[in-house]
Write a structure and sequence with these properties.
Structural class: alpha/beta
Number of strands: 16
Distance between the termini: 13 Å
Helix content: 40-55%
Strand order of the largest sheet: 4-5-2-1-7-8-9-10
CATH architecture of the largest domain: 3-Layer(aba) Sandwich
CATH topology of the largest domain: Rossmann fold
Shape: globular
Oligomer: single chain
Largest sheet: 8 strands, mixed
Number of helices: 17
CATH superfamily of the largest domain: Glycogen Phosphorylase B
Radius of gyration: 21 Å
Number of domains: 2
Length: 394
């Protein structure tokens, strides 16, 4: 098989952790030796001089249109966007930028399928590419790509149209599968495709707990709560910070970067917990694993999710979750060992922290709840899905 895989979230020199889970999934599919994947990660940039002046885009503007990234060639054609304005235009702009490249590559060696790793803006763009090339196409739904973007006029219509016309679809959880079915899509063409996990990084700690804490300069007598996710309203780190006012013997490590950072720093100061709330920014995955292994609990009060990689990574490290009833939460927290599902408020979070700290589950029992997650299984399932669609379209 030869597959054109489209993903606007993909790591680069400008953002090495951005969409790392997409990279790992495609790497695992590559490792089966059953498919050749052409990776295209369109680079959305505002017009000059905004592309050079805005901090968000300055580093991205310097990326080459083709590079070698961790052993794989990645094509990064530019498409035009206006930050915060007319997002419904982005899918068409993306498709317009990619189509000449895709046609040229297809003429040199034909593709069998077009794959979109996200529903927006990748999905509708993949649909346009597939129709131009006369190919079947697949779209994966992960969470915010349908939960948020279907609330935006102009985007929702394109997402629903692409879902209905896709040859096949993937969903990261049963909850997301049901959401897609709500678009009028036959559930028979929606496959469950759970995330994987890098077990070379995320696993039960081999060093004593005291040593893990000493490396992070966290006293062993304090509870350590880890919260991994972009600092954006949907992730809800503010609720975790408010809970800290009721947890005087705990520290909170916020791992991630985003627009909410100034607000979260201000909130921590106002609640007099700033000395126990640490905003660590974006960290390499190896360092994230160290924090999760040292933590007593992982907290993520999201308003919406698909099936968060951060959930699975924490559990693999033996760290129970305190999460909200979002997306596939009930598909992950199926036992007390995995943690608690709570209301999205500070009181509920604090109560769950007290409960779990008073009777913590064995870390081995926690890790066992995600024993069947792996990138190898993820990659094999992705290849099987693609092959099924190609055969069905033949």
């Amino acid at each position: 098989m030869r597959v054109l895989s489209l993903s606007t979230l993909y790591p680069s020199a400008a953002a090495p952790n951005f969409g790392r889970f997409v990279e790992l999934s495609l790497d695992a599919a590559d490792a089966t030796d059953e498919v050749e994947i052409v990776r295209i990660s369109p680079n959305g940039l505002p017009p000059w001089p905004l592309s050079r002046l805005m901090r968000t885009y300055k580093a991205r503007a310097r990326l080459p249109v083709a590079d070698e990234w961790r052993g794989h060639r990645v094509l990064r054609p530019h498409f035009a966007l206006i930050p915060g304005s007319a997002p419904a235009r982005n899918a068409a702009a993306l498709a317009k930028a990619v189509l000449p490249l895709a046609q040229n590559l297809h003429a040199q060696q034909p593709f069998d399928l077009v794959d979109a790793q996200f529903f927006w803006p990748d999905g509708p763009a993949a649909m346009q590419l597939a129709e131009a090339l006369g190919l079947p196409f697949s779209i994966k739904a992960r969470g915010a790509d349908i939960h948020y973007w279907t609330t935006i006029a102009g985007c929702r219509e394109q997402i629903v149209d692409a879902a209905q016309r896709a040859t096949g679809l993937l969903a990261v959880s049963e909850a997301i599968r049901a959401d897609i079915a709500g678009f009028g899509v036959d559930t028979g063409k929606i496959r469950l495709h759970r995330t994987g996990i890098d077990r070379s990084l995320f696993g039960l700690p081999t060093d004593p707990h005291e040593m893990l804490r000493a490396r992070l300069q966290v006293p062993t007598y304090e509870a350590l709560l880890a919260c991994v996710g972009a600092l954006i309203p949907r992730k809800g780190q503010a609720f975790a910070i408010r809970a800290m006012a009721q947890l005087p013997e705990a520290r909170l490590a916020l791992i991630g970067e985003g627009e909410d950072r100034p607000m979260l720093e201000k909130l921590a100061r106002e609640l007099s917990v700033a000395d126990r709330v640490h905003l660590l920014g974006s960290l390499p995955h190896g360092e994230i694993a160290h924090y999760l292994q040292a933590a007593d609990l992982a907290v993520l009060p999201s308003a919406s999710e698909g099936l968060a990689n951060a959930w699975i990574e924490a559990l693999a490290c033996g760290t129970p979750l305190i999460i909200t009833d979002a997306g596939g939460a009930r598909e992950v927290v199926k036992s007390d060992a995995a943690g608690r599902i709570v209301a999205r408020d500070a009181d509920a979070i604090a109560a769950a922290v007290h409960e779990l700290l008073s009777a913590p589950p064995r870390r081995e029992a926690v890790a066992a709840t995600v024993a069947d997650y792996s990138w190898q299984a993820n990659g094999a399932a992705l290849v099987a899905h693609w092959r099924h669609l190609i055969k069905a379209a033949a």
